[in-house]
Design brief:
This protein is of the alpha/beta class. 31% of the residues lie in helices and 23% in strands. The strands form seven sheets. Strands 5-2-1-9-21-20 form a six-stranded mixed beta sheet, with helices on one face. It has a five-stranded parallel beta sheet with strand order 11-18-12-13-14. It has a three-stranded antiparallel beta sheet with strand order 6-7-8, with no helix packed on it. Helix 1 runs parallel beside helix 9. The longest helix has 21 residues. The N and C termini lie far apart (53 Å). The structure holds flavin-adenine dinucleotide. Flavin-adenine dinucleotide (FAD) binds next to helix 1, strand 2, helix 2, helix 7 and helix 9.
Length: 434
Protein backbone atom coordinates (compact mmCIF):
# COMPACT_ATOMS: atom_id res chain seq x y z
CA UNK A 1 0.00 0.00 0.00
CA UNK A 2 1.48 3.36 -0.95
CA UNK A 3 1.79 5.68 2.03
CA UNK A 4 0.11 9.08 1.81
CA UNK A 5 2.50 11.86 0.89
CA UNK A 6 2.67 15.06 2.95
CA UNK A 7 0.06 17.53 1.72
CA UNK A 8 1.00 21.17 1.11
CA UNK A 9 -1.91 23.60 0.83
CA UNK A 10 -1.16 26.96 -0.81
CA UNK A 11 -3.69 29.76 -0.38
CA UNK A 12 -3.49 32.19 -3.32
CA UNK A 13 -2.31 31.75 -6.91
CA UNK A 14 -0.58 35.13 -7.11
CA UNK A 15 3.16 35.62 -7.49
CA UNK A 16 3.97 34.04 -4.12
CA UNK A 17 1.64 31.04 -4.35
CA UNK A 18 2.47 30.14 -7.96
CA UNK A 19 6.18 30.22 -7.36
CA UNK A 20 5.89 28.16 -4.19
CA UNK A 21 3.91 25.48 -6.05
CA UNK A 22 6.37 25.45 -8.97
CA UNK A 23 9.32 25.12 -6.59
CA UNK A 24 7.70 21.96 -5.15
CA UNK A 25 7.54 20.24 -8.56
CA UNK A 26 10.19 17.65 -7.72
CA UNK A 27 9.29 17.29 -4.03
CA UNK A 28 7.63 14.14 -2.76
CA UNK A 29 4.48 16.00 -1.72
CA UNK A 30 0.93 16.59 -2.95
CA UNK A 31 0.18 20.25 -3.48
CA UNK A 32 -3.26 21.85 -3.40
CA UNK A 33 -3.42 25.43 -4.71
CA UNK A 34 -6.60 27.27 -3.67
CA UNK A 35 -7.65 30.59 -5.19
CA UNK A 36 -10.93 32.47 -5.33
CA UNK A 37 -10.39 32.94 -9.10
CA UNK A 38 -9.52 30.28 -11.65
CA UNK A 39 -6.75 32.52 -13.01
CA UNK A 40 -3.55 34.25 -11.98
CA UNK A 41 -3.63 38.03 -12.44
CA UNK A 42 -0.49 39.88 -13.50
CA UNK A 43 -1.24 42.93 -11.37
CA UNK A 44 1.55 45.20 -12.68
CA UNK A 45 -0.37 45.45 -15.98
CA UNK A 46 -3.85 46.05 -14.54
CA UNK A 47 -3.61 49.75 -15.35
CA UNK A 48 -3.11 48.89 -19.03
CA UNK A 49 -6.44 47.01 -18.99
CA UNK A 50 -8.06 49.99 -17.26
CA UNK A 51 -6.73 52.33 -19.97
CA UNK A 52 -7.71 50.08 -22.90
CA UNK A 53 -4.16 49.16 -23.95
CA UNK A 54 -4.51 45.45 -23.22
CA UNK A 55 -7.41 43.01 -23.03
CA UNK A 56 -8.25 41.48 -19.67
CA UNK A 57 -7.28 38.05 -21.02
CA UNK A 58 -3.79 39.28 -21.96
CA UNK A 59 -2.73 39.65 -18.33
CA UNK A 60 -4.43 36.64 -16.76
CA UNK A 61 -3.56 32.98 -17.00
CA UNK A 62 -5.76 30.06 -16.04
CA UNK A 63 -4.23 28.29 -13.00
CA UNK A 64 -5.13 24.78 -14.17
CA UNK A 65 -3.32 25.54 -17.45
CA UNK A 66 -0.20 26.72 -15.60
CA UNK A 67 0.02 23.41 -13.71
CA UNK A 68 -1.21 21.10 -16.47
CA UNK A 69 2.19 19.41 -16.64
CA UNK A 70 2.98 19.42 -12.94
CA UNK A 71 1.60 16.10 -11.74
CA UNK A 72 1.77 16.77 -7.99
CA UNK A 73 -0.44 19.92 -8.11
CA UNK A 74 -4.20 20.05 -7.87
CA UNK A 75 -6.23 23.27 -8.04
CA UNK A 76 -9.39 24.23 -6.18
CA UNK A 77 -11.36 27.37 -6.91
CA UNK A 78 -12.63 28.48 -3.51
CA UNK A 79 -12.36 31.28 -1.01
CA UNK A 80 -10.50 30.48 2.20
CA UNK A 81 -12.06 31.99 5.33
CA UNK A 82 -10.03 30.67 8.25
CA UNK A 83 -7.49 28.13 9.47
CA UNK A 84 -8.19 25.50 12.14
CA UNK A 85 -4.73 24.98 13.60
CA UNK A 86 -5.74 22.10 15.92
CA UNK A 87 -7.24 20.06 13.09
CA UNK A 88 -4.64 21.35 10.58
CA UNK A 89 -7.35 22.27 8.10
CA UNK A 90 -8.20 25.37 6.09
CA UNK A 91 -11.85 26.32 6.23
CA UNK A 92 -13.44 27.33 2.95
CA UNK A 93 -16.28 29.82 2.83
CA UNK A 94 -18.42 27.07 1.31
CA UNK A 95 -18.16 25.26 4.65
CA UNK A 96 -15.86 22.46 3.50
CA UNK A 97 -12.38 21.94 4.86
CA UNK A 98 -9.06 20.95 3.33
CA UNK A 99 -6.44 19.20 5.48
CA UNK A 100 -2.75 20.12 5.30
CA UNK A 101 0.59 19.01 6.66
CA UNK A 102 2.21 22.23 5.49
CA UNK A 103 0.49 25.52 4.73
CA UNK A 104 1.64 28.51 2.67
CA UNK A 105 -0.60 31.58 2.86
CA UNK A 106 -0.13 34.02 -0.03
CA UNK A 107 -3.42 35.92 -0.24
CA UNK A 108 -1.82 39.29 -1.10
CA UNK A 109 -3.03 42.74 -0.08
CA UNK A 110 -6.18 44.83 -0.18
CA UNK A 111 -6.50 48.57 -0.55
CA UNK A 112 -6.48 50.65 2.57
CA UNK A 113 -8.39 53.94 2.66
CA UNK A 114 -6.85 55.07 5.99
CA UNK A 115 -10.34 55.98 7.18
CA UNK A 116 -10.98 58.56 4.42
CA UNK A 117 -14.76 58.99 4.25
CA UNK A 118 -16.37 58.03 0.94
CA UNK A 119 -13.48 56.10 -0.67
CA UNK A 120 -15.17 52.79 0.03
CA UNK A 121 -18.51 53.93 -1.44
CA UNK A 122 -17.32 56.02 -4.39
CA UNK A 123 -13.67 55.21 -5.13
CA UNK A 124 -12.24 52.89 -7.76
CA UNK A 125 -9.29 50.66 -6.99
CA UNK A 126 -7.00 48.69 -9.23
CA UNK A 127 -6.45 45.36 -7.61
CA UNK A 128 -8.31 42.79 -9.71
CA UNK A 129 -9.21 42.26 -13.36
CA UNK A 130 -12.85 42.90 -12.56
CA UNK A 131 -11.97 46.26 -11.04
CA UNK A 132 -9.76 47.21 -13.99
CA UNK A 133 -12.59 46.47 -16.46
CA UNK A 134 -15.09 48.32 -14.23
CA UNK A 135 -12.81 51.37 -14.14
CA UNK A 136 -12.25 51.33 -17.92
CA UNK A 137 -16.00 51.05 -18.52
CA UNK A 138 -16.70 53.85 -16.07
CA UNK A 139 -14.12 56.20 -17.64
CA UNK A 140 -15.34 55.60 -21.19
CA UNK A 141 -18.93 56.03 -20.02
CA UNK A 142 -18.02 59.55 -18.84
CA UNK A 143 -17.00 60.43 -22.41
CA UNK A 144 -20.24 58.98 -23.78
CA UNK A 145 -22.18 61.09 -21.27
CA UNK A 146 -20.24 64.20 -22.18
CA UNK A 147 -20.87 63.52 -25.88
CA UNK A 148 -24.61 63.44 -25.16
CA UNK A 149 -24.59 66.41 -22.78
CA UNK A 150 -21.63 68.79 -22.65
CA UNK A 151 -22.84 70.06 -19.28
CA UNK A 152 -21.39 66.83 -17.91
CA UNK A 153 -17.91 68.32 -18.43
CA UNK A 154 -18.83 71.49 -16.49
CA UNK A 155 -19.92 69.27 -13.61
CA UNK A 156 -16.48 67.57 -13.56
CA UNK A 157 -17.51 64.47 -15.53
CA UNK A 158 -14.22 64.49 -17.47
CA UNK A 159 -12.05 65.27 -14.44
CA UNK A 160 -10.32 62.11 -13.29
CA UNK A 161 -8.66 62.19 -9.91
CA UNK A 162 -5.95 59.73 -8.88
CA UNK A 163 -4.88 59.65 -5.24
CA UNK A 164 -1.30 58.50 -4.60
CA UNK A 165 1.69 59.16 -6.88
CA UNK A 166 3.51 55.90 -6.21
CA UNK A 167 4.30 53.65 -9.20
CA UNK A 168 0.61 52.68 -9.73
CA UNK A 169 -0.66 56.28 -9.64
CA UNK A 170 2.14 57.55 -11.91
CA UNK A 171 1.72 54.76 -14.47
CA UNK A 172 -2.04 55.18 -14.48
CA UNK A 173 -1.81 58.98 -14.91
CA UNK A 174 0.70 58.62 -17.77
CA UNK A 175 -1.49 56.08 -19.59
CA UNK A 176 -4.66 58.15 -19.06
CA UNK A 177 -3.31 61.40 -20.53
CA UNK A 178 -2.04 59.45 -23.52
CA UNK A 179 -5.48 57.87 -24.03
CA UNK A 180 -7.20 61.23 -23.72
CA UNK A 181 -4.72 63.17 -25.93
CA UNK A 182 -4.01 60.69 -28.68
CA UNK A 183 -6.84 58.19 -28.91
CA UNK A 184 -10.18 59.52 -27.73
CA UNK A 185 -10.24 62.74 -29.84
CA UNK A 186 -10.65 60.44 -32.90
CA UNK A 187 -13.59 58.66 -31.23
CA UNK A 188 -15.37 61.83 -30.13
CA UNK A 189 -15.09 64.43 -32.91
CA UNK A 190 -18.20 66.14 -31.49
CA UNK A 191 -16.51 66.66 -28.13
CA UNK A 192 -13.72 68.95 -26.93
CA UNK A 193 -11.73 66.07 -25.43
CA UNK A 194 -9.00 68.58 -24.54
CA UNK A 195 -11.19 69.53 -21.59
CA UNK A 196 -10.60 66.10 -20.00
CA UNK A 197 -8.24 66.41 -17.04
CA UNK A 198 -6.13 64.01 -15.01
CA UNK A 199 -5.43 65.28 -11.50
CA UNK A 200 -2.78 63.36 -9.55
CA UNK A 201 -2.79 64.07 -5.82
CA UNK A 202 0.14 63.14 -3.58
CA UNK A 203 0.32 63.80 0.13
CA UNK A 204 4.14 63.93 0.29
CA UNK A 205 6.27 66.39 -1.65
CA UNK A 206 7.46 63.96 -4.33
CA UNK A 207 6.25 61.28 -6.74
CA UNK A 208 7.55 57.66 -6.83
CA UNK A 209 8.45 57.48 -3.13
CA UNK A 210 10.78 54.46 -3.29
CA UNK A 211 12.84 55.83 -6.22
CA UNK A 212 15.98 57.96 -6.31
CA UNK A 213 15.97 61.73 -6.71
CA UNK A 214 16.82 61.71 -10.44
CA UNK A 215 14.02 59.28 -11.35
CA UNK A 216 11.50 61.22 -9.27
CA UNK A 217 12.44 64.53 -10.86
CA UNK A 218 12.23 62.99 -14.35
CA UNK A 219 8.81 61.42 -13.67
CA UNK A 220 7.51 64.68 -12.26
CA UNK A 221 8.74 66.62 -15.30
CA UNK A 222 7.21 64.18 -17.78
CA UNK A 223 3.87 64.07 -15.97
CA UNK A 224 3.56 67.85 -15.95
CA UNK A 225 4.78 68.20 -19.54
CA UNK A 226 2.17 65.71 -20.70
CA UNK A 227 -0.59 67.65 -19.01
CA UNK A 228 -1.17 65.86 -15.71
CA UNK A 229 -2.30 68.28 -13.01
CA UNK A 230 0.15 67.01 -10.39
CA UNK A 231 -0.47 68.37 -6.92
CA UNK A 232 2.17 67.49 -4.35
CA UNK A 233 1.61 67.94 -0.62
CA UNK A 234 -2.13 67.54 -1.21
CA UNK A 235 -4.31 65.09 0.69
CA UNK A 236 -7.93 64.10 0.12
CA UNK A 237 -10.27 64.68 3.00
CA UNK A 238 -13.61 63.35 1.73
CA UNK A 239 -14.90 61.59 -1.35
CA UNK A 240 -18.44 62.04 -2.68
CA UNK A 241 -20.21 60.67 -5.76
CA UNK A 242 -19.70 63.90 -7.74
CA UNK A 243 -16.80 65.66 -6.00
CA UNK A 244 -13.87 65.32 -3.65
CA UNK A 245 -12.87 67.67 -0.85
CA UNK A 246 -9.15 68.29 -0.44
CA UNK A 247 -7.43 68.98 2.87
CA UNK A 248 -7.68 72.76 3.07
CA UNK A 249 -11.26 72.72 1.87
CA UNK A 250 -10.97 72.94 -1.95
CA UNK A 251 -13.85 71.15 -3.71
CA UNK A 252 -13.05 69.37 -6.96
CA UNK A 253 -15.94 68.21 -9.17
CA UNK A 254 -15.33 64.66 -10.41
CA UNK A 255 -17.19 61.44 -11.03
CA UNK A 256 -14.00 59.37 -10.88
CA UNK A 257 -11.68 58.91 -7.95
CA UNK A 258 -8.98 56.26 -8.35
CA UNK A 259 -7.46 55.25 -5.04
CA UNK A 260 -3.80 54.27 -5.38
CA UNK A 261 -2.69 55.50 -1.99
CA UNK A 262 -1.98 52.43 0.03
CA UNK A 263 -2.51 48.78 0.77
CA UNK A 264 -2.60 46.55 3.79
CA UNK A 265 -2.31 42.79 4.19
CA UNK A 266 -5.31 40.68 3.23
CA UNK A 267 -7.74 40.41 6.19
CA UNK A 268 -7.09 36.67 6.36
CA UNK A 269 -3.89 37.71 8.20
CA UNK A 270 -6.08 38.42 11.23
CA UNK A 271 -7.50 34.89 11.14
CA UNK A 272 -4.03 33.33 11.45
CA UNK A 273 -3.73 34.26 15.12
CA UNK A 274 -0.17 35.54 14.61
CA UNK A 275 1.13 38.94 15.70
CA UNK A 276 0.59 41.64 13.09
CA UNK A 277 2.86 44.60 12.42
CA UNK A 278 2.54 47.71 10.24
CA UNK A 279 -0.29 47.64 7.66
CA UNK A 280 -1.45 44.36 9.26
CA UNK A 281 1.51 42.48 7.78
CA UNK A 282 2.27 39.23 9.62
CA UNK A 283 5.33 39.04 11.90
CA UNK A 284 7.28 35.93 10.95
CA UNK A 285 10.28 33.84 11.93
CA UNK A 286 13.39 34.43 9.77
CA UNK A 287 12.57 31.35 7.63
CA UNK A 288 9.06 32.82 6.88
CA UNK A 289 7.22 30.39 9.17
CA UNK A 290 4.70 31.59 11.73
CA UNK A 291 5.93 31.83 15.33
CA UNK A 292 5.42 28.42 17.00
CA UNK A 293 4.07 26.93 13.75
CA UNK A 294 7.08 25.64 11.81
CA UNK A 295 4.77 23.95 9.27
CA UNK A 296 2.95 27.17 8.27
CA UNK A 297 4.34 30.04 6.16
CA UNK A 298 3.20 33.46 4.99
CA UNK A 299 4.71 34.98 1.84
CA UNK A 300 4.38 38.02 -0.39
CA UNK A 301 2.35 41.15 0.35
CA UNK A 302 1.06 39.68 3.62
CA UNK A 303 4.53 39.01 5.06
CA UNK A 304 5.95 41.53 7.49
CA UNK A 305 9.58 40.65 6.76
CA UNK A 306 12.30 43.26 6.96
CA UNK A 307 15.62 43.92 5.30
CA UNK A 308 18.72 45.70 6.50
CA UNK A 309 17.95 48.53 8.90
CA UNK A 310 14.63 46.92 9.83
CA UNK A 311 12.70 48.42 6.88
CA UNK A 312 9.78 46.32 5.69
CA UNK A 313 10.35 44.63 2.35
CA UNK A 314 8.43 46.39 -0.43
CA UNK A 315 5.12 44.84 -1.49
CA UNK A 316 6.32 43.95 -4.98
CA UNK A 317 6.29 40.88 -7.19
CA UNK A 318 10.01 40.02 -6.73
CA UNK A 319 9.64 39.76 -2.95
CA UNK A 320 6.58 37.50 -3.33
CA UNK A 321 8.31 35.31 -5.95
CA UNK A 322 11.46 34.87 -3.87
CA UNK A 323 9.50 34.25 -0.67
CA UNK A 324 7.26 31.67 -2.37
CA UNK A 325 10.35 29.78 -3.52
CA UNK A 326 11.96 30.13 -0.10
CA UNK A 327 8.92 28.73 1.76
CA UNK A 328 8.88 25.75 -0.65
CA UNK A 329 12.60 25.16 -0.09
CA UNK A 330 12.08 25.31 3.67
CA UNK A 331 9.33 22.67 3.46
CA UNK A 332 11.70 20.43 1.49
CA UNK A 333 14.39 20.96 4.14
CA UNK A 334 11.95 20.16 6.96
CA UNK A 335 10.95 16.93 5.19
CA UNK A 336 14.64 15.96 5.21
CA UNK A 337 14.82 16.74 8.91
CA UNK A 338 16.90 19.90 8.34
CA UNK A 339 16.30 23.37 9.77
CA UNK A 340 15.02 26.21 7.64
CA UNK A 341 17.34 29.01 6.54
CA UNK A 342 16.63 32.71 7.02
CA UNK A 343 15.07 34.47 4.05
CA UNK A 344 17.26 37.11 2.40
CA UNK A 345 15.75 39.30 -0.30
CA UNK A 346 17.89 39.68 -3.41
CA UNK A 347 16.80 43.11 -4.63
CA UNK A 348 17.03 43.49 -8.41
CA UNK A 349 15.77 47.04 -8.63
CA UNK A 350 12.60 48.80 -9.70
CA UNK A 351 11.02 50.33 -12.77
CA UNK A 352 7.97 52.30 -13.81
CA UNK A 353 6.75 53.99 -16.98
CA UNK A 354 5.01 57.29 -17.48
CA UNK A 355 3.34 56.58 -20.81
CA UNK A 356 4.91 56.22 -24.25
CA UNK A 357 8.72 56.25 -24.49
CA UNK A 358 9.19 57.51 -20.93
CA UNK A 359 10.30 55.28 -18.11
CA UNK A 360 12.56 55.02 -15.09
CA UNK A 361 14.57 51.91 -14.29
CA UNK A 362 16.86 51.56 -11.31
CA UNK A 363 18.90 48.37 -11.05
CA UNK A 364 20.04 47.31 -7.59
CA UNK A 365 23.67 47.65 -6.57
CA UNK A 366 24.27 43.91 -6.99
CA UNK A 367 23.24 44.31 -10.65
CA UNK A 368 25.56 47.24 -11.22
CA UNK A 369 23.37 50.05 -9.85
CA UNK A 370 22.59 51.35 -13.37
CA UNK A 371 19.79 53.90 -13.69
CA UNK A 372 17.97 54.72 -16.90
CA UNK A 373 15.36 57.30 -17.65
CA UNK A 374 13.52 58.04 -20.88
CA UNK A 375 13.26 55.67 -23.82
CA UNK A 376 15.75 53.16 -22.40
CA UNK A 377 13.85 53.04 -19.10
CA UNK A 378 10.63 52.49 -21.02
CA UNK A 379 12.14 49.75 -23.19
CA UNK A 380 13.62 47.93 -20.15
CA UNK A 381 10.19 48.02 -18.49
CA UNK A 382 8.50 46.50 -21.58
CA UNK A 383 11.15 43.79 -21.83
CA UNK A 384 11.02 42.77 -18.15
CA UNK A 385 7.20 42.71 -18.08
CA UNK A 386 7.09 40.55 -21.19
CA UNK A 387 9.52 38.08 -19.61
CA UNK A 388 7.53 37.79 -16.39
CA UNK A 389 4.04 37.76 -17.92
CA UNK A 390 2.87 34.14 -17.55
CA UNK A 391 1.76 32.25 -20.67
CA UNK A 392 3.32 32.22 -24.17
CA UNK A 393 0.11 33.40 -25.79
CA UNK A 394 -0.22 36.29 -23.33
CA UNK A 395 3.31 37.38 -24.16
CA UNK A 396 2.61 37.28 -27.90
CA UNK A 397 -0.68 39.18 -27.43
CA UNK A 398 0.88 41.83 -25.19
CA UNK A 399 3.84 42.29 -27.54
CA UNK A 400 1.53 42.57 -30.57
CA UNK A 401 -0.80 45.00 -28.82
CA UNK A 402 2.04 47.17 -27.56
CA UNK A 403 3.67 47.29 -30.99
CA UNK A 404 0.35 48.12 -32.63
CA UNK A 405 -0.48 50.77 -30.00
CA UNK A 406 2.97 52.31 -30.37
CA UNK A 407 2.82 52.51 -34.15
CA UNK A 408 -0.79 53.60 -34.53
CA UNK A 409 -1.63 55.45 -31.28
CA UNK A 410 -4.54 53.03 -31.01
CA UNK A 411 -6.00 51.34 -27.92
CA UNK A 412 -8.15 48.54 -29.24
CA UNK A 413 -9.85 47.59 -25.95
CA UNK A 414 -12.03 50.72 -25.70
CA UNK A 415 -15.04 48.69 -24.67
CA UNK A 416 -17.68 49.50 -22.09
CA UNK A 417 -18.35 46.03 -20.78
CA UNK A 418 -19.74 46.50 -17.30
CA UNK A 419 -23.36 47.45 -16.92
CA UNK A 420 -23.79 50.54 -14.79
CA UNK A 421 -24.38 49.13 -11.35
CA UNK A 422 -24.11 50.59 -7.86
CA UNK A 423 -20.44 51.35 -7.08
CA UNK A 424 -20.17 48.74 -4.39
CA UNK A 425 -21.06 45.95 -6.81
CA UNK A 426 -18.83 47.30 -9.55
CA UNK A 427 -15.59 47.31 -7.60
CA UNK A 428 -16.18 44.17 -5.57
CA UNK A 429 -17.29 45.25 -2.14
CA UNK A 430 -14.85 44.35 0.56
CA UNK A 431 -11.69 45.11 -1.40
CA UNK A 432 -11.14 48.41 0.33
CA UNK A 433 -10.67 48.04 4.03
CA UNK A 434 -11.10 51.06 6.22
C1 LIG B 1 -2.07 48.00 -9.76
C2 LIG B 1 -0.84 47.31 -9.25
C3 LIG B 1 0.39 47.50 -9.88
C4 LIG B 1 1.52 46.86 -9.43
N1 LIG B 1 2.70 47.07 -10.09
C5 LIG B 1 3.80 46.39 -9.70
C6 LIG B 1 5.00 46.51 -10.44
O1 LIG B 1 5.09 47.25 -11.43
N2 LIG B 1 6.08 45.78 -10.03
C7 LIG B 1 6.02 44.95 -8.95
O2 LIG B 1 6.99 44.28 -8.64
N3 LIG B 1 4.89 44.83 -8.23
C8 LIG B 1 3.78 45.52 -8.59
N4 LIG B 1 2.63 45.39 -7.87
C9 LIG B 1 2.63 44.58 -6.63
C10 LIG B 1 2.58 43.11 -6.91
O3 LIG B 1 1.56 42.82 -7.83
C11 LIG B 1 2.35 42.39 -5.58
O4 LIG B 1 3.41 42.70 -4.72
C12 LIG B 1 2.26 40.89 -5.77
O5 LIG B 1 1.15 40.57 -6.57
C13 LIG B 1 2.14 40.19 -4.42
O6 LIG B 1 2.06 38.81 -4.62
P1 LIG B 1 1.26 37.90 -3.59
O7 LIG B 1 1.46 36.50 -4.06
O8 LIG B 1 1.59 38.26 -2.22
O9 LIG B 1 -0.26 38.32 -3.79
P2 LIG B 1 -1.15 38.43 -5.09
O10 LIG B 1 -0.34 38.39 -6.32
O11 LIG B 1 -2.05 39.58 -4.86
O12 LIG B 1 -2.01 37.08 -5.05
C14 LIG B 1 -2.95 36.83 -4.06
C15 LIG B 1 -3.88 35.75 -4.55
O13 LIG B 1 -4.66 35.30 -3.47
C16 LIG B 1 -5.99 35.12 -3.90
N5 LIG B 1 -6.85 35.25 -2.72
C17 LIG B 1 -7.06 36.35 -1.96
N6 LIG B 1 -7.88 36.06 -0.95
C18 LIG B 1 -8.20 34.77 -1.06
C19 LIG B 1 -9.03 33.88 -0.31
N7 LIG B 1 -9.67 34.31 0.80
N8 LIG B 1 -9.16 32.62 -0.72
C20 LIG B 1 -8.52 32.18 -1.83
N9 LIG B 1 -7.72 32.97 -2.57
C21 LIG B 1 -7.56 34.24 -2.19
C22 LIG B 1 -6.21 36.23 -4.92
O14 LIG B 1 -7.26 35.90 -5.80
C23 LIG B 1 -4.85 36.25 -5.62
O15 LIG B 1 -4.82 35.40 -6.74
C24 LIG B 1 1.45 46.01 -8.31
C25 LIG B 1 0.23 45.80 -7.66
C26 LIG B 1 -0.91 46.44 -8.13
C27 LIG B 1 -2.23 46.21 -7.45
Amino acid sequence: MPTARPRVVIVGAGFGGLNAARALRRADVDVLVIDQHNFHTFQPLLYQVATAGLDAGDIAHQVRGIFARQRNVRFLMARVGAVDWDAREVELESGTREPFDYLIVAAGAVYHDFGTPGVFEHGFVLKSLHEAVALRSHMLRQFERAAADEGHIDRGGLTFVIVGAGPTGVEMAGAMVELFDRVLPKDYPELDVGRAKVVLLEMTDHVLAPYGERSRAYAERVLRRRGVDLRLGTAVQEVHADHVVLAGGERLGTATLIWAAGVRAHPIAEALGAPLGRASRVDLMPDLSLPDRPHAFVVGDMAGTTGSGGTLHPQVAQVAIQQGKHAAATIIRRLRGEDGRPFAYADRGQMAIIGRSAGVAELSRRLGGFRFTGFLGWLSWLFIHLIYLPGHQNRVNAFTNWTFNFLTYERHARLILDEETPRDEQVGRGTIVG
